[in-house]
Design a protein that fits this description.
Number of strands: 0
Structural class: mainly alpha
Oligomer: single chain
Order of helices and strands: HHHHHHHHH
Radius of gyration: 20 Å
């Protein structure tokens, strides 16, 4: 079963690469078929096997020799691992399918944010709609699938999403007044509402993990770029939010317990 989840993860990761490339460019995700961005030659099925084809081709297009970004096998492999993590956390259940789908969306969002510095509504809105439909189905008696962390009545994740997005909107307004520029992107605020639907009030744990990691990396990046004379200190928050959400799904309660133990709070 682990192998099955991993293989499905690789296949979905390959589709994720299509989304990463096409959504920011506003291309259709269904047409034309996969092709080399450099020479436009359609990619044959045997050159489109996740990870393996990239290795066989040594990261280059068979037709024109143009380099194929290492992002392609990395996204495929990462998604395979994330699907296995969903299985390890929830077993072969409907909740593992929901978790795997959530992880897939997070990975694609992180990859797009790293490359294009944006979190696309084309991903966040459909994912939010699906999560809302799952919660509404629970309200009329369907099995409980959300939140993925802890348990609660169906409406609690909606309240958590509103609270999280509103909190970060207020922080953004404060940053705008104090620093004269936005501190948090609109895409991040919308993403936090989705996190609330999926994680319940553990959304704040995911956000805290993201902010701490982003601050550490941001300071390091600022130091390195100042040494090189670069003035660009931008660090996208989306990848850290995604990582925080994944860690919260997998270890949320344990991390809270560990923090309370270290802090000496019983």
């Amino acid at each position: 079963m682990v192998l099955l989840y991993f293989l499905f993860g690789l296949v979905f990761g390959s589709f994720g690469n299509v989304l990463v490339y096409r959504i920011p460019r506003k291309y259709s995700i269904s047409w034309p078929a996969s092709h080399c961005p450099a020479c436009k030659t359609p990619i044959r099925w045997y050159d489109n096997i996740p990870v393996i084809s990239w290795l066989i081709l040594k990261g280059r297009c068979r037709a024109c020799g143009a380099p194929i970004a290492i992002r392609y096998p990395l996204v495929e492999l990462a998604n395979g691992i994330l699907f296995v993590c969903a299985y390890a956390r929830f077993g072969a259940t409907a909740r593992s399918v929901v978790a795997a789908g959530f992880f897939f969306v997070l990975l694609v969002i992180a990859a797009i944010d790293i490359e294009h510095r944006k979190i696309p509504n084309a991903l966040v809105f459909p994912a939010t709609g699906i999560a809302a439909l799952i919660l509404l189905a629970q309200a009329i008696g369907s099995p409980s699938l959300l939140p993925l962390v802890g348990s609660s009545e169906w409406y609690v994740p909606i309240l958590a999403g509103l609270a999280a997005s509103l909190s970060f909107y207020v922080l953004d307004m404060i940053a705008l007044v104090v620093f004269k520029k936005p501190g948090i992107g609109a895409g991040d605020i919308k993403l936090l509402f989705l996190f609330g639907l999926v994680l319940g009030f553990y959304v704040f744990e995911a956000a805290l993990i993201a902010v701490v990691l982003a601050a550490i990396v941001g300071i390091a990046v600022l130091y390195i770029r100042s040494k090189s004379g670069s003035s660009d200190s931008y660090v996208p928050l989306g990848p850290f939010l995604s990582l925080g959400a994944v860690l919260t799904v997998l270890y949320g309660p344990q991390l809270v317990s560990l923090y309370l133990e270290v802090a000496g709070i019983s």
